[in-house]
Structure formats: structure tokens, C-alpha cells
Automatic annotation (TrEMBL):
Name of the featured protein: HAD-IIB family hydrolase
GO CC term (a single one): cytosol
PANTHER family: PHOSPHATASE YKRA-RELATED (PTHR10000:SF25), PHOSPHOSERINE PHOSPHATASE (PTHR10000)
Record InterPro entries: HAD-like_sf, HAD-SF_hydro_IIB, HAD_sf
Organism per entry: Roseburia hominis
Amino acid sequence: MKKIAFFDIDGTLTSEIDGSIPESAVYAIRAARANGNLMFINTGRCFQNVEQRFRDVGFDGFVCGCGTDIYCDGAEILHVAQTHETVMKLLLAAREWDIDILFESRKEVAFDLARPLRHPDARRQYEAFEERGYEMPEHLENPNFFCDKFVLWFEHPEQLAGFRTTSDRYFECIDRGGNFREFVPLGYSKATGLNYVLDYYQIDKKDAYAFGDSNNDLPMLTALTNSVAMGNASPATLFDKVSYVTKCASEDGIRLALEHFGFI
């Protein structure tokens, strides 16, 4: 019976130590595909930010942007974008509350640089994108600018609370720890993306498996009976919400879990 597995990227497919892709994970995913199973990335990253090194592992498809952009067998089968009007409301709210905001879409990422980025993690992310050679538009008021989702960094709780008086009408806020939050359109998640793929291939949920390590993986981990938390998962409460806890990503966690569930 064909099975399907969905993998988060950061801390799941990649090592929690240095962000590399363990060779054992590459081997296991390729071996599982060779055995007739489907392998999918299911990530909060939008497609543009799924680096070539991840695509080169060899996947049957990608669920990107927390279920807002889906690719199967090389074809895009779903894309949900926000209107420019909605994006401008978010931009104005971020400026009002002095928040670092990063808009994401399937084609580009864009920081609001109307004032200098304040949070050190936001600055580091901007520098990382520059190092990868990403072209980041700066004129966000352009009527052709839109996003699929976004993330932000704040310094004080009242900033986030004030911003959410605008964003909660359109987006769910996911706590990613510290002063970092991820925002996904209402009605979309890694779970809705997963279900869309299962419907596309007509695969039963009992033959589907989800691998993750953080709070934004929780929807897909709790949507399936077969769910895997990496040993490096955070918060540790994720361990109580999955059917199997494997080793850390850096300790061959993916290979061991795929062996455990009979993919290889």
C-alpha cells in the first residue's frame, strides 16, 4: 500500500545544530520514494524560500506557506494570496505599532524598510536573505505588491496586542517563541494543505504521516494518527501530542522514523 509522508523543513529536515540536511535523511527519503511512497515537504516557508538544496533531495511535491500554496508532481494545484488592500492594512498597522514585519509570497520576500529594522533576529534574517541573493522589493505601496502570509518581530507585548486588533480579522497568529510570531490566513494551515494533497491523490489518512518539531507543525501533527516529533522538538509539550518521538534531526531522526513505520 502506498504511503505518504509530510516533512517540515527547519529542525525536521534540517539539523537543529547547523541547519544542514543530514545525509541519512536524504538517503531515507530517496529510498522511501524508490519503494513507491510519496514524499512531501510541508512548510511555513513560501515556495520562493524553499532553497534549491531542499528541492534537490527529491520530493513529489510541496505544501508551502502553511497550506496556501501547493505543488504536486511539478504543477501548482492551489495558491491563495492576500489582496493589496489587506496587505496595506497590515503594513500601516505594523508601522503604527513600530513592528518589524516580513511579507512572504510564492515569488518573493519583503521587509518593510521605511525605518531601520530593530529586532536583532529580523536584521539577521534580512542579512541571510541578502547572502542568498534574494531580490527584496522595497516599494511595498506598489499596487502590484501582495503577500501570502507574513511574520513579525516585536519588542513589547503591547505592540503585538495593538497590531493584532488589525491582523486578527484576516490571520491566525502562531507563537514561534520569544518575540517572533507567524501569521497564516484564517482557514489555512499545514493540516489543510495536507488534506488537500490527500484528496488530490485519494490517499486515506491512515496511510499518511507527518514529521515536525514546532508549534506551527501542530495542526498537521494532530490531524493524523501517524505523527512524528523530532527529538529536538520545542516546546517539549509536542511530545505528548504525537504517536512517535524519534531522535533529533542531527541524530538520524528521519531515517529512524521512516524505518520504524516501514517506509524503508
